[in-house]
């Protein structure tokens, strides 16, 4: 028998129950959709305000990253329809283009916005807002930048530094305002009606914010106003353009004596090249530089920017800098001439090869392209031609603003490079024959007993102290840079020591003295034979040669200068081997009063028979008087001769005008000769000078 006590039955919904349940679901869904519709209507203005604010921020970031102005425009239908439901982006230099536009009519029906004010308000409205302190964009002219067709629209223009300029739009308490509302009505630049308003605020510094409502005012409902049409995007650039460029300028502009080149340069000199350019179609420009070494023996200088490569130029190091006010008087090569307003500038530094030699010619040329592809260059600037400077350079001691300083310069006084740091004086430069090292005296201005003897690298190395502090009045470096000689004026000693690392001790000293009326302290400078084996120096009326190999306390041989009838004081001998005339010679200054210049043969043989050849002194006629010393009213100073023996540099003091200068004279046959009608003078306050290779 089967029991039924554990059996169960299930019951389904009846038709009436199902209908009642479905009706409840439909009713609840309708209520929810109605609520959602009303909620969407209430928050849609805030949603559109958020979208507009995001576009403002994006335009600002694009201006900063791209380096050109970017404007967000609200179309106004040439000023007749201030309400819009679209935005467009205007960007570029010279001829800005509409590159993007968006319409919000589909996502936000019945909503519109305008750059406007409202009344009453809790703050003060103005037309335009003051630029923030330290703004870099106050000189930017929006109306000159914007195309004519866009100038009547409401333009919020962000500049590359992140600042904002508008075309005099309404501002509340220093912030520009865009009102967004349902069915807005605008009278002039004031909103008079609209529902559920929201406001976007933009400050002149570029900050963007938005909020619901118009503070201090209540807007009534209004009828839908006409909307300005969407601003269509311009056709994109074609990828080619006629780039307008200026000639390349060079600084410092050391004129080429031959007149056949743009400038001339010296080894190791830093030169600045500058080029201005613009694209009439308004695109950004990029620039690199090319160097032709076919006329310089393959020797290349160093650029501060990358060299030209194939393909578009797009990196930040290649981007040309925008300048609002280019210099007047530039020579523009293009048919369109100078830009109406700002343009781009490329400025770069180029270092002349330290191995540059006289006769080298360097050709440098600009390579200008744009970011979207190679631009068709219509007016390529001619290359700059920079030949090497005339043979040799000078290292001089010159008085500048009451302080004696060392300068490197060309032998005509151009191409000056300051070597002395601030706050000290540096005097009596003396260089090794390879031009890599200079010895000098350094100390605080006006404190003669606090001077140091130093050696400095001229090729980018450091410097070191040889002696000091003390009262030093001269210093001289041997041709190979292995010896140094300097005078301690407090003890009257001329000190000789070798140079090395570490610095060796003093090798030997010599007593050195003068009589007479000439202030001879700085004229105690030592000369050196061409082979570096002998030091030649003056002591009262004697010219003395010391054998450095023996480092003896006794002079190797000497000569008393008496060719003018009486013993004469002799100062600052310099050894040289002239290109003609045979044999080594020594040039020096002679005389207690109104010193003149003379030279004598020098024959160091390595034994006691060495001599200053036959004691005949040739006096130098630098004033063209014929015979005689020819110094006129000049007191001749410390002579120095170039390494090749062909050029003399002589600082001179003119007692008639109380002025200091330096004379450069070539060796011609048997002596140094200056053209009296057109002397090669450096008319600057130079007290001592030495030649560099």
Describe the fold and architecture.
With 693 residues, the protein is mainly beta. The chain has three domains: 36-131 and 139-212, minor pseudopilin epsh fold; 244-387, Immunoglobulin-like; 393-692, Neuraminidase, CATH 2.120.10. 8% of the residues lie in helices and 38% in strands. The strands form ten sheets. Strands 4, 5, 8, 9, 10 and 11 form a six-stranded antiparallel sheet that branches. Strands 12, 13, 14, 16, 17 and 18 form a six-stranded antiparallel sheet that branches. Strands 40, 41, 42, 43, 44 and 45 form a six-stranded antiparallel sheet that branches. Strand 9 (175-187) and strand 10 (190-202) form a beta hairpin. The longest helix has 52 residues, at 15-66. It starts with 14 loop residues before the first helix and ends with a strand.
Amino- and carboxy-terminal Cα gap: 133 Å
**Spatial extent as radius of gyration:** 42 Å
* Percent of residues in beta strands: 35-45%
* Inertia-based shape: elongated
Number of strands: 46
Largest sheet, in brief, is: 6 strands, antiparallel
Q: What is the correct CATH architecture of the largest domain?
A: 6 Propeller
What is the average of the pLDDT values? 81
Tally of discrete structural domains: 3
Helicity level: under 10%
Instruction: Write out the CATH superfamily name of the largest domain.
Output: TolB, C-terminal domain
CATH class of the largest domain: Mainly Beta
Are there runs of 5+ residues with pLDDT below 50, and where? 1-10, 31-43
| CATH T-level fold name of the largest domain | Neuraminidase
């Amino acid at each position: 028998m089967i029991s039924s006590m554990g059996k169960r039955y299930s019951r389904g919904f009846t038709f009436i129950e199902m209908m009642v349940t479905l009706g409840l679901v439909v009713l609840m869904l309708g209520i929810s959709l109605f609520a959602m519709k009303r909620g969407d209507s209430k928050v849609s203005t805030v949603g559109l305000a958020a979208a507009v604010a995001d576009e403002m921020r994006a335009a600002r970031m694009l201006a900063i990253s791209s380096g050109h102005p970017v404007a967000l425009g609200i179309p106004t239908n040439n000023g007749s329809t201030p309400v819009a439901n679209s935005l467009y982006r205007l960007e570029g230099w010279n001829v800005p283009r509409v590159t993007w536009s968006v319409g919000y009519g589909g996502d936000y029906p019945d909503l519109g916005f305008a750059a406007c004010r409202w009344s009453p308000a809790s703050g003060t409205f103005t037309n335009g807002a003051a630029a923030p302190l330290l703004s870099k964009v106050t000189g930017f002219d929006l109306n000159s930048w914007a195309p004519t067709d866009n100038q009547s629209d409401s333009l919020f223009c962000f500049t590359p530094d992140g600042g904002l300029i508008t075309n005099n739009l309404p501002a509340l308490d220093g912030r520009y305002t865009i009102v967004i509302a349902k069915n807005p009505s605008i009278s002039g630049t004031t909103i008079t009606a609209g529902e559920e308003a929201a406001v976007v605020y933009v400050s002149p510094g570029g900050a963007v914010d938005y909020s619901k409502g118009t503070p201090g005012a209540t807007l009534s409902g209004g009828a839908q106003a006409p909307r300005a049409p969407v601003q269509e995007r311009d056709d994109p650039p074609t990828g080619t353009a006629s780039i307008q460029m200026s000639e390349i300028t060079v600084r410092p502009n050391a004129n080429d004596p031959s007149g056949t080149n743009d400038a001339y340069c010296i080894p190791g000199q830093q030169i600045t090249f500058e080029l201005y350019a613009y694209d009439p179609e308004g695109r950004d420009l990029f620039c690199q530089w090319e160097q032709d070494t076919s006329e310089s023996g393959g020797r290349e200088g160093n650029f501060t920017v990358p060299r030209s490569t194939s393909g578009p130029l797009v990196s930040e190091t290649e981007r040309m800098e925008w300048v609002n006010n280019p210099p007047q008087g530039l020579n523009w090569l293009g048919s369109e001439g100078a830009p109406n307003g700002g343009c781009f500038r490329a400025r770069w530094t180029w270092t002349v090869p330290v191995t540059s030699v006289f006769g080298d010619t360097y050709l440098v040329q600009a390579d200008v392209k744009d970011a979207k592809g190679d631009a068709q260059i219509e007016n390529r600037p001619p290359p700059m031609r920079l030949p090497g400077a005339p043979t040799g350079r000078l290292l001089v001691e010159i008085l500048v603003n009451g302080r004696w300083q060392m300068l490197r310069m060309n032998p005509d006084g151009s191409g000056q490079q300051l070597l002395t740091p601030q706050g000290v004086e540096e005097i009596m430069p003396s260089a090794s024959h390879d031009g890599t090292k200079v010895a000098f005296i350094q100390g605080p201005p006006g404190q003669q007993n606090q001077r140091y003897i130093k050696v400095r690298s001229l090729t980018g190395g450091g410097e070191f102290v040889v002696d000091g502090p003390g009262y030093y009045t001269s210093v001289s470096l041997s041709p190979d840079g292995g010896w140094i000689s300097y005078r301690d004026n407090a003890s009257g000693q001329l000190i000789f020591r070798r140079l090395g690392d570490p610095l060796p001790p003093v090798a030997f000293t010599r007593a050195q003295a003068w009589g007479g009326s000439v202030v001879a302290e700085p004229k105690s400078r030592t000369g050196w034979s061409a082979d570096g084996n002998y030091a030649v120096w003056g002591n009262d009326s004697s010219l003395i040669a010391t054998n450095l190999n023996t480092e003896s306390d006794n002079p190797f041989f000497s000569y008393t200068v008496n060719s003018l009838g009486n013993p004469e004081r002799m100062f600052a001998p310099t050894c040289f081997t002239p290109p003609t005339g045979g044999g080594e010679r020594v040039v020096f200054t002679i005389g207690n009063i109104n010193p003149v210049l003379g030279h004598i043969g020098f024959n160091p043989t390595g034994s006691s028979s060495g001599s200053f050849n036959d004691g005949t002194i040739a006096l130098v006629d630098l004033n063209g008087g014929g015979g005689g010393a020819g110094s006129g009213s000049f007191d001749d100073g410390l002579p120095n001769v170039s390494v090749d023996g062909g050029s003399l540099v002589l600082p001179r003091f003119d007692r008639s005008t109380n002025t200091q200068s330096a004379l450069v004279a070539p060796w011609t046959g048997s002596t140094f000769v200056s053209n009296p009608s057109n002397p090669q003078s450096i008319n600057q306050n130079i007290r001592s000078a030495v030649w560099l290779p």
